[in-house]
TrEMBL record:
Broad class of enzyme this protein falls into: transferase
Keywords: Endoplasmic reticulum, Glycoprotein, GPI-anchor biosynthesis, Membrane, Transferase, Transmembrane, Transmembrane helix
Main location: endoplasmic reticulum
Entry's localization field: Endoplasmic reticulum membrane
UniProt protein name: GPI ethanolamine phosphate transferase 1
Similarity annotation: Belongs to the PIGG/PIGN/PIGO family. PIGN subfamily.
Species of provenance: Oreochromis niloticus
Amino acid sequence: MITFFVIGLTVHVVFFISIFDIYFTSPLVHGMTPHSTPLEPPASRLVLVVADGLRADSLFTPLPNGSSRTPYLRGIIEDKGTWGVSHTRVPTESRPGHVALIAGFYEDVSAVAKGWKENPVEFDSVFNESRHTWCWGSPDILPMFAKGASGDHVYTHTYPAVEEDFASTDASKLDSWVFTQVKSFFKSAQSNSTLKASLWEDKNVFFLHLLGIDTNGHAHRPMSQEYLDNIGLVDAGLAEVVSIIEDFFDNDGKTAYVFTSDHGMTNWGSHGAGHPSETLTPLVAWGAGVQKAKGVTEPQPYNDGFLQDWKLEHLRRVDVSQADIAPLMASLIGVPIPVNSVGVLPLLYLNNSERFKAESMYTNAIQVLEQFKMKMMQKKETTLSFLFTPYQYIPFCKELIDRNKSLVYYHTYDRFFLGCSVVLGFVGWTSYVVLVILKTHLVFFSCVQIPGRNLARLCTCVAVVITVFLLIQRSPITYYIYCLLPVPVWYSVLKDAQNFTCVSLTVRNKPGSCMAVYFCCPQVVSFFHRAMLTVGLAVLSLWPFLSGLFGKAKSRSLSWLVGCLCLAAFPLMPVVGREPNIHLMLLVAVCAYVPSLTHSSLQQKRGLPLLNQIISWSTLASSIFVPLLSSTRLFHRLLSIFLSLTSTYLLLSTGSEALFPPVLSWLMFVWINIEQEALLAQGMSSRQESGVCSHFLYFCFPLPSFDPASVYCFLTVFNPFIMGGLMMWKVLLFLIVLVISDLMALHFFFMVQDYGSWLDIGTSISHYVIVMSMTIFLMLLSVVTHVLTSQRLVLWRQRKMHFP
């Protein structure tokens, strides 16, 4: 068993790591030469304003009386500038959005392991190519562009991270802070000759990151008065800042302005996926080099109905992809387009000569072609000449940019080869497990030994050939692991398979094995369609009636039926997008006080009480050890485990899900009693406490929801790692229910995706990780079961009393 555990651990760890080499490598390449338009740019400086979390409809939709909550920007749209919708891509998060805006490429998927605050690899940006860039705003966004800049020409001014509090009384103060700092900056520059000289140079960028709208949207929802008032505050602050900048530069007409957003927000205050409310963001540009507003009389090529809703059908609308904004900004101030940019220059935003537009478009195309040539060269150098297949599609300038399939082609060049290696390993490991099961559950009456002396030589030759092949190709060290690991696995399979030939056999009575195969497919489907769990529970509710137990234990059978049907309702409830319902939580006595008080405090904008935070973290820490203080009697210990885990789960609950643990535990206790009745009826011992507890632990972990408000009992200041950790703890309380085979792991391996929202990417990874961890978990579960059912912590010893 030790050997089996070691082999299983090695195989699963290696194959788990493999997805990061196969699916989540960085698509960025380095070493290209930056290109810029050789003609004189129309602007000397650029002001980029990003209103984090601002939806397009929230900005463009007029008020019921016909006026606008953003009169300054509305005036720009109708007179001085060009406007449109910037279409973002998933994941609609702050870091990917800003990377697309400023660097011109969509988020590097290798950042999935580092969160939004870290650059997975260094990358070029408009800020890096500028002469100077001054930034004001959030400490979560600004440092990542300063860190990746070559030189010390990107200057950041940020407020403390603790200010980003979802429980804040007024998050618009974050935007007020930015406007105040910008005004103070230009005022101080009047008396600072060195700074003033730097500001008057060309190719400068001023970046204002406004986080208040996003924070108010998370805390109060986008339809709230706080969110809408914050938009009005931004409009007024922007008007004042533009006036100050124009006065500072003596209205020289050399300043270009771009106002946009990194992502939108759903009606329930979340973002990250691909709903139109998340992917449609506003874009307004004006100033030097930008086309002024143009009236139209004919219908425009947009069928979404927004022009009529926004009362803007009389003005030309120019939509762009979010990455297109980077080459636009670079062209306006004459800096090189970021070397990793895949954006397409939106010519309709430019107000310049036809020659300037042509040169800018040519520069845009050449920059993408440079990436293609670099990727092709790198792959060609590490591939044998007779195995190298070049990409055959050579399009012209704009077509090359629009259809950058060539970049994807070389980025995923090795994916099929590595995938085949992993599949061979998976099939080998699964075959090895099948042989172990056959040895355990089959009784062999006679066997014929088959010598396998040549098998070792064959496997050694295969390993040598693979090693030489990888050496010639100069492959990374991880490739050796993925390609060589299947060799010893298949050696073990073939060796065991040759050791016997079954003449006759008898199958031991193990109905659980059949049940595991039977439930494999529904469990896979339940990962994507939660209603499958409802169907399964409904069918399971009939078990006592179909098995004949109803006649022997009617009350318990009816209790089982009601429990299954109650439990079946929970998978049908939404995991996101519903309002917190604290009143349902009050039905549960355990730990209902803390979430209720926390919810009340947040509603009244008094912040998170320190006492509640201490109680929440203490409960989380102690929940692991509290069951060990109870009696080792089966019922007492199971009840203790349930109460301990449920207390933590309730602190992470915001609504109807709080009822799930009591209903599930009720059903599990009924199941234990019915199972004991069945064992007694078959004449078997009912003292199978360890096995019973194992099954109880499988199912005593609740079905989670994924509302960010679930962690508000622990913290409200934005911290993706702590918040993510708490949410994952809550998820794991449920996910270990699914006892899954390695066939499911192979199934999910092909479903891992490196595109889409972080929710989509994270879900595909988590499915794969869960099924890969199951084998190891099942091996450890018996040990944990033994500890939880047979051990007890004694904090103090009682003195023996002797009675006369």
